[in-house]
């Protein structure tokens, strides 16, 4: 009766010298070879260390201005931090849902990309779940962007002064649209009306495109809009661009005068963009992310992408940003009160 034996395969021929004192090369069973190959494959596929993953939360949906801004530099920020930076959209309740989530984060890997609506929402919603002053730390200021006052092309006025005279001649009779009650476009128009002492009926829409469509259709007599949404309509006969609300002319619409140049000296209204972190993030980590963002914002490719969104880039230290955020909170409260904005 023959004894069964397990077939063997030489796995070391020509690779390893014979072991000392042995005249034959080592042999592995078919089963043993498969196991070894599997172990080697697993080892080769594992990174030397786990890659850090950082979430940059955008409190609005995909395709929003903030979402586009976030995706303009998240890859470069990841490189600067030696990490993977992913954009996570957490929309809802005027941006307060995503903002509240970041406020409660304690992992040191969760950031918030936000704009002036950050402070505005705090005055509109009673229970946001966070304190914008106490629960956040400013990391990096990115820039700011004004708004464009647009009116129907057949309204019969050609200048801001003509427009103001028309509004005053029909107090409360004319309408304006916005991208939403209490949002930046609403408050931009409310601020202008307050400055000139005129009144209009507010028609809130759900998005910038809808607000512009109301002007194109002639159903409202004006709107304030993000610059990037109107750059392609300079020659559109159904709409007329009257003025830009920024402190200086937009690089995207250099021929359009500012509101101050058009007859209201000292008037300026814009929205800022900044990267924030939960107040729980250690100072040393905040400084690291700030340094990484400084590198990112110096990148010409990133600068071009942001400017294409109508942004005027700028820089601030961590302390300067903190002071700006606090001062802006007070200003936002006054604007919301003056506008009579309510959450609908």
Automatic annotation (TrEMBL):
Species of origin: Paracandidimonas soli
Recorded family membership: Belongs to the UPF0065 (bug) family.
Protein keywords: Receptor
InterPro entries, per the entry: BUG, Bug_dom1
Protein name listed in UniProt: Tripartite-type tricarboxylate transporter receptor subunit TctC
Keyword Calcium: no
Pfam families on file: TctC (PF03401)
Gene3D superfamilies reported for this sequence: Bordetella uptake gene, domain 1, Periplasmic binding protein-like II
């Amino acid at each position: 009766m023959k004894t069964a034996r397990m077939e063997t395969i030489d796995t070391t021929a020509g690779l390893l010298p014979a072991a000392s004192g042995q005249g034959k090369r080592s042999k592995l069973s078919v089963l043993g070879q498969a196991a070894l190959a599997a172990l080697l494959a697993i080892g080769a596929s594992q990174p030397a260390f786990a890659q850090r993953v950082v979430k940059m939360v955008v409190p609005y949906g995909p395709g929003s201005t903030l979402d586009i801004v976030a995706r303009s530099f998240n890859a470069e920020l990841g490189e600067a931090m030696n990490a993977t930076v992913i954009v996570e959209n957490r929309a809802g309740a005027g941006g307060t849902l995503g903002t509240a989530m970041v406020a409660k984060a304690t992992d040191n890997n969760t950031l918030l990309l936000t704009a002036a609506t950050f402070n505005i929402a705090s005055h509109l919603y009673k229970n946001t779940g966070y304190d914008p002053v106490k629960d956040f730390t400013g990391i990096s200021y990115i820039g700011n962007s004004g708004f464009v006052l647009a009116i129907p092309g057949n309204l019969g006025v050609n200048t801001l002064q003509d427009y103001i005279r028309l509004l005053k001649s029909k107090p409360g009779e004319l309408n304006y649209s916005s991208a939403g009650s209490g949002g930046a476009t609403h408050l931009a128009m409310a601020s202008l009306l307050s400055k000139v002492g005129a009144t209009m009926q507010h028609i809130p829409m759900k998005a910038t495109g809808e607000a512009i469509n109301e002007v194109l259709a002639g159903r409202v007599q004006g709107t304030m809009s993000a610059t990037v949404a109107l750059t392609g309509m300079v020659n559109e006969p159904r709409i007329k661009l009257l003025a830009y609300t920024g402190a200086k002319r937009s690089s995207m619409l250099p021929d359009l005068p500012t509101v101050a140049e058009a007859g209201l000296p000292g008037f300026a209204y814009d929205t800022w963009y900044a990267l924030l972190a939960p107040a729980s993030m250690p100072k040393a980590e905040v400084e690291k992310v700030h340094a990484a963002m400084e590198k990112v914002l110096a990148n010409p490719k990133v600068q071009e992408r942001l400017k294409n969104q109508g942004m005027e880039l700028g820089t601030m230290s961590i302390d300067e940003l903190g002071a700006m955020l606090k001062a802006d909170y007070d200003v936002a409260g006054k604007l919301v009160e003056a506008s009579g904005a309510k959450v609908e």
